[in-house]
Amino acid sequence: MPNNLPEGDLLEGDLAENSPLNNDRPWWRDYEYMRPTYAARYLGISQSKLAKLRMQNCPTTGPPFSKIAGMVVYRRPDLDRWVEENQVVDHRDSRTPATK
Description:
alpha+beta; 27% helix
């Protein structure tokens, strides 16, 4: 049975068992560590954008990552924290018209 996830980008679990085609749980639920392909998919951004955030060498720009034997790895809790820390809250009152 083919699946829509590229092989070799997850570090834990069995891809066939945890494929979205085989169960009702989210595909990422069993994976604490993700390679860039899956981290980008998890965040809903392109792999290119994630790579650019990583290459800017600014710890506040992109999500934290580790390098293990030259392989980039993201932890899911770090990705979640990065999203929370970068939440934008619009403090403008939507009932008040904007002034020019």
